[in-house]
């Protein structure tokens, strides 16, 4: 009985979640209930289609500052192309609770995207509940400055099935958004083409993987070539773009504010 009483706020939160299905207060009720299980600094709901700009549905814990609004605008303007969760959507991802570690490149935490953008916007770590709905993926992102522990991830795994079911049902109950579709996304190859540097297909692929945070060894495995050949491609693309490293490459291609 004591254990049940201790969990009473969670059960009450669960009632609010299902009572708000198809209504504007659903996401707030869901995030507040999940916070009873695991602390988080921020939460963001997005609808992601492969090859399209993600639609940001609702952002929690934003202070509404000009800087934060610019950061979200930067995401929609092109930063999403380096988002590991968006990349996972494009590659095909199953319904579930997914961690940053499970979808990110091996050196993501050393990437310029993480150091100059992700860390300030999301935090040091991120978890996402993700569910496939009508050819898109609905994601509830939870971020914070401290890493999520395995125990905390375990708590969220215990509620995963009802969270995903509620997210799917809520989207089905919401009124249609109209005929307007998200703009078609570009890709990193298209961004690199702007510089007329005559990069080869291999050099463009190398640049994409560098920006995503893959090490030379991982790039070699992804491309089926030797690490020495990766170094040649890296050197050539840096020379053609007149940059001295991945930090300058990031600044050149994504042009963060």
Automatic annotation (TrEMBL):
Keywords annotated in UniProt: DNA-binding, Transcription, Transcription regulation
Any one biological process term the GO annotation gives: regulation of DNA-templated transcription
Any coiled-coil regions, as ranges: none
InterPro entries: Sig_transdc_resp-reg_C-effctor, Tscrpt_reg_LuxR_C, WH-like_DNA-bd_sf
Pfam families attached to this UniProt entry: GerE (PF00196)
First and last residue of the signal peptide: none
Matching CDD domains: LuxR_C_like
Gene Ontology terms, MF aspect: DNA binding
Domain HTH luxR-type positions: 192-257
Superkingdom of source: Bacteria
SUPFAM superfamilies noted in UniProt: C-terminal effector domain of the bipartite response regulators
Name of the protein described by the UniProt record: Regulatory protein, luxR family
């Amino acid at each position: 009985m004591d254990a049940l009483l201790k969990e009473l706020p969670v059960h009450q939160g669960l009632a609010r979640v299902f009572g708000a299905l198809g209504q504007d207060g659903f996401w707030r009720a869901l995030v507040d209930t999940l916070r009873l299980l695991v602390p988080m600094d921020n939460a963001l709901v997005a609808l992601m289609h492969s090859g399209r700009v993600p639609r940001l549905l609702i952002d929690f814990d934003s202070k509404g500052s000009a800087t934060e609004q610019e950061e979200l605008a930067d995401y929609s303007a092109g930063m999403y192309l380096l988002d590991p969760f968006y990349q996972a959507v494009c590659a095909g991802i199953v319904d579930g609770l997914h961690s940053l570690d499970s979808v990110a490149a091996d050196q993501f935490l050393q990437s310029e995207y993480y150091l100059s953008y992700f860390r300030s916007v999301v935090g040091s770590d991120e978890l996402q509940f993700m569910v496939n709905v009508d050819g898109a993926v609905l994601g509830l992102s939870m971020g914070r400055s401290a890493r999520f522990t395995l125990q905390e991830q375990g708590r969220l795994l215990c509620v995963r099935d009802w969270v995903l079911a509620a997210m799917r049902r809520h989207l089905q109950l919401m009124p249609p958004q109209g005929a307007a579709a998200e703009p078609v996304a570009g890709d990193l190859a298209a961004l690199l083409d702007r510089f007329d540097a005559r990069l080869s297909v291999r050099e463009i692929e190398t640049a994409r993987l560098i920006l995503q945070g893959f090490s030379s060894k991982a790039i070699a495995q992804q491309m089926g070539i030797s690490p020495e050949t990766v170094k040649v491609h890296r050197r050539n693309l840096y020379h053609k773009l007149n940059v001295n490293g991945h930090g300058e490459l990031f600044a050149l291609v994504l042009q963060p504010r």
